[in-house]
Amino acid sequence: MEHISQQEATDLVWKEHEVAHLGAWKVFKALGRKGYKIPYSFVRMTLKGCEICAKFREEKMRDQWHSLLYSDEPGGVVYVDFTGPLLPGCGGVKYIQCIVDSATRVAHATKHKTADAMAAIKGLDQG
User: Phi and psi for 96 in degrees, rounded to 5?
Assistant: First the structure.
């Protein structure tokens, strides 16, 4: 691969990061898969300027993150949770299931009458 300038490397890092505000490690790995050899330390330093990510880090305590599973591959790990019971809506819907992909942080919500294992599986099939 040919040498790229610091500005080009910065632009590549931001372009990859802004897809879903991926963390420095995920951006580094994604750029590596695309053939770019940008040092991890450069990626970290570049992404320290992201205001959205800084706000997210303020809201979470670091010690709560250690037990979470994650994946660099979209669909590798998803988080699933139910909210409810809510006041019954059309058709008796009382629960909302939220599914979040750990790599992309893309969220998907589905409505359910119950909050059990079968409803969770049905929500994953729809997502």
Answer: -120, 125
